[in-house]
Amino acid sequence: MHHPVEPESLDASLTKAAAILRAAKRVAVLTGAGISAESGLATFRGAGGLWEGHRVEEVATPRAFQRDPTLVWRFYNLRRANLATVKPNPGHDALVDIEKRLGDQFTLITQNVDSLHYAAGSKNVLEIHGALRRVRCTRCTRITERGTEALPDLPRCDKCDGLLRPDVVWFEEELPKDVWRPAVEAAYQCHCFLVVGTSAVVFPAAWLIEAAKNGGAKVIEVNLERSAASDRADVVLLGPSGATLPELIKRL
Ligand code: BV8
Ligand code: ZN
Questions:
Q1: Closest by alpha carbon to 222, among 30, 23, 3, 4?
Q2: Which of 8, 84, 193, 245 could form a disulfide with 94 if both were Cys (CB 3.0 to 4.6 A apart)?
Q3: Cβ of 221 less than 6 Å from ligand 1
Q4: Do 107 and 79 share a domain, yes or no?
Q5: Residue 68: which residues within 8 A CB-CB, separation 6 or more?
Q6: Can you state the angle between helices 207-214 and 177-189, rounded to 10 degrees?
Q7: C-beta of residue 115 within 8 angstroms of C-beta of residue 131
Q8: Atom of ligand 1 nearest to the CA of 59
Q9: Probe ligand 1: pick from 54, 79, 203, max atoms within 8 Å of CB?
C-alpha cells in the first residue's frame, strides 16, 4: 500500500534543501519554461500551453517547417516579439547568486530558448535546446545573432538567399554535441542537482536527472506542482521559483 508521503511544510523542505546546497562543492541546475513564467513567458504544457490550437510538439518539428514554414515562423516570431518585452525574474537572479558563490563549480543547463539566464548575468550556461536570438541558414548553415528584432515570415540568408530557420532544437532533432556532452558531465559530477520549472517530460533533457542520481547527487526540485521529476527528488519545494529560489539562497 503506497502511503501518501505527508507533504512536509515548505519551511522544513527549504531547511533540508539549504543544508544539501550548502554541503555541495559542485552544483548543476536544469531549468525549464517554469522559471521564465514569472517573467511573463507562457509555458508549454500549462493551461496556456497551446499556441493558436497547436501543441509545441506539432509546430517545433522539421516536418512542420517543411510543410508550412510560414506557420512555423509565425510561431517563432511571436515568441521573439514576446521576448523583447520581458526581463529576468528573481528566480533567474537567485541562480546568478549561486554561481557567484561557486564559480566554475556551477553549471546551468537550460531547456529554455529565451536566453533570460544570460540576461540575468549567468555565465556558464548550456542552452541545450538552442536559442530564439539566433537563426541558422538551411542552405549554407551560417548562424547569425538576431536578438529579438522582428523578422519577416520567411527570412532569407543575406549570403546565399537560403531560407533561415530558428537556431533551436526541434523534436526529432539531435541536441548539439557541444552543449549536450558538458551537460551530461556536469549532471554526473555534481553533488547537488537543482531541477527548476520543468515538467521533465522532454528527453533526453529529463534524463539528466538520472545522470545526476547515478553520479550520487542529491536532487532538489523547485516547481509549482509535482512533476515527472518529483519521485526522483530528495526534496521537492512547491511554489513559484521566483519566490522559492531567493528564499533558498537566504538560508544558505
Ligand atoms: C531527440 C526547443 C534524438 C524548441 C524543445 C516518446 C517518449 C519519450 C520521448 C519521446 C517520445 N517521442 C519522441 C520522443 C523524443 C522527444 C520527446 O522527448 N518528446 C516528448 C514531448 C515526449 N525528444 C526529442 O525529439 C529530442 N530529440 O530525442 O533526438 C533522436 C534524433 C533522431 C532520431 C531519434 C532520436 C528534442 C527535444 C527538444 C525539443 N525542443 N524546445 C522551442 O522551444 O520552440 S522542447 C520544449 O519543451 C522546450 O524546450 C521546453 O523547455 C521543453 C520542456 O518543457 P518544459 O520546459 O518542462 O516546460 P513545460 O511547460 O512542459 O513545464 C513547465 C513546468 O514549470 C511545469 O512543471 C510547471 O508546473 C512549472 N511551472 C510553471 N510556472 C512555474 C513553474 N515552476 C516554478 N515556478 C513557476 N512560476
Ligand atoms: Zn545561407
A1: 30
A2: 245
A3: no
A4: no
A5: none
A6: 40
A7: yes
A8: 44
A9: 203
pLDDT tens sequence across 89-137: 999 999 999 999 999 999 999 999 999 999 999 999 999 999 999 999 9
- C-alpha 169/C-alpha 74 separation (Å) is 17
Range of the domain at 192: 10-41+88-129+175-250
How far is the C-alpha of 226 from the C-alpha of 176, rounded, in Å? 29
CA of 73 to the centre of ligand 2 (A): 17
80 and 185 belong to one structural domain: no
**139 Cα: distance to centroid of ligand 2 (angstroms):** 5
The pLDDT value given to residue 225: 96
Task: State how many domains the chain has.
Answer: 2
> What pLDDT is recorded for position 44?
82
Q: Is the pLDDT of residue 1 over 90?
A: no
53 and 154 in a single domain? The answer is yes
To the query of whether residue 3 is one of the catalytic residues in this protein, the response is no
CATH no. for residue 119? 3.40.50.1220
Measured in Å, residue 143 CA sits from the centre of ligand 2 at: 9
Distance (Å, rounded) from C-alpha 245 to C-alpha 196?
9
